């Protein structure tokens, strides 16, 4: 089929990258934003604009909040199909309480699981979630969308397509294809070291685009390979499930044996028991960490089998001083505070897994490395975007001569994925600042409306990209790119101004304090808007040059194809 192995790798790189590059673009862009997801949350939820707090007292603050928590009306409604008979008005048998925070979280996330009477399937549970101010225990409004951690972050690995885990499988396939594209790209480019130092934007758009594609691909090659690979490792449990397969009985048996070996009960005893002072257990856990030279705050706190004789409390350390995602868990008997278990050192295989996972999720404290992650993710976006542009630039004039529409369709999809995605991102930020505090009765939740705005704006950008793509069929550049760049240039500062108007936190104030979570996002928006304006002006000049050089019909000669 191909004359050489290198030509076959060129075909693989081109077509595999094109087909799934649109998914990879979203994964890279929203993955880059997720590096600062908690900071974006503070911009989106003004009530959370204060400094990160340590885990508060369980006995004085968290326990009363847990005892008042109940599942939301939506959760109860979804549960009705899974029970025989009516659901209770109140769920009184909690099976687990949990609290989670990080060194970048000002607010505290709580969750509680409850037994479901008359459930059709055993061990069915219903969950409640709440976000509180750890300084006072006051709950934040339930309908506030944490745009960074609850939308952008899951979008980069699941596309928020949760039916049958479809989004996970699509992104997983795209990650696998990316590994293939990286390897085939190395095979294609025999002079890969020279391409590290080659960028000729003054030549023509096709040559400059290819140079930039090669440059960003080579510079961030280890980053791209590592994150595609570790992303597959993290979600291996979805791609190769043990539960709900023929191995499920073996899996359940292993869990029970593991519970016996660790001394942590797998099931409830059915005997009521009080809950001892969790604060005392936390103090003992911190004392034990300190003796190992690992003093630190609590990152995750969980009470399993609440109110039962088999209940136990697990205290995990916020390991922000190391890369490996290790919590150094210490477990106590809930009714007495007796020490049950300290997690032992991990095996070599498990240690490698936690290191790779921690390096991907970057929960550690290292701000410079976080920015390198962002730059690596944006380099991936540039690499993919320039791949799209090169594909179109290389073929659009040949397609114009043959009367084909392939380049036009690819160009419209590329504009949708690159500039359209940025417009949708700005759209959700602007909606976040424009929507009133409470919506009229009968409307969806405020956070749901923000999501609808995001997808609606993206669909509009897609419609605009296809509507304005006709010049590509004539060998010219589509004006959609320029027009959407101008839209970005206008929307980005608008989001900054709306933040000022609705919260009073203008850029001069947040820089003077300084309060970097909000100031950093505002500055990034302004820089992004400026770059979009520069790109729009350059695209306008390119359109004018095309109007001068190309014949009126848009069909070009062989020499023009070579030098275009």
Key terms:
about 575 residues, about 60% helix, disordered C terminus
Helical residues, percent: 55-70%
The structure class reads alpha+beta
pLDDT below 50 for ≥5 consecutive residues: which ranges? 552-564
Spatial shape: globular
Largest sheet: 7 strands, antiparallel
Number of helices: 20
Strand order of the largest sheet: 3-2-1-4-5-6-7
Strand-residue proportion: 5-15%
Radius of gyration: 27 Å
Distance between the termini: 30 Å
Number of strands: 7
Describe the structure.
With 564 residues, the protein is of the alpha+beta class. Among the domains are: 51-142 and 262-346, no CATH class; 405-564, no CATH class. 58% of the residues lie in helices and 8% in strands. It has 20 helices and 7 strands. It has a 7-stranded antiparallel beta sheet. β6 and β7 (339-342) form a beta hairpin. The chain is globular, with a radius of gyration of 27 Å. Mean pLDDT is 86; it is low at 552-564.
Indicate the topology.
Elements lengths: L4 H30 L2 H8 L13 H11 L4 H7 L14 E7 L7 E8 L9 E8 L14 H12 L7 H23 L3 H4 L9 H15 L1 H14 L1 H4 L8 H15 L15 H14 L6 E7 L7 E6 L12 E4 L5 E4 L5 H14 L5 H36 L3 H29 L11 H22 L11 H25 L3 H6 L3 H34 L8 H6 L1
Antiparallel strand pairs: 1-2, 1-4, 2-3, 4-5, 5-6, 6-7
Helix pairs in contact: 1-5, 1-6, 1-14, 2-5, 2-19, 6-9, 8-14, 9-13, 14-15, 15-16, 15-17, 17-19
In short:
By secondary structure, the protein is an alpha+beta fold. The chain has 20 helices and seven strands. It has a seven-stranded antiparallel beta sheet.
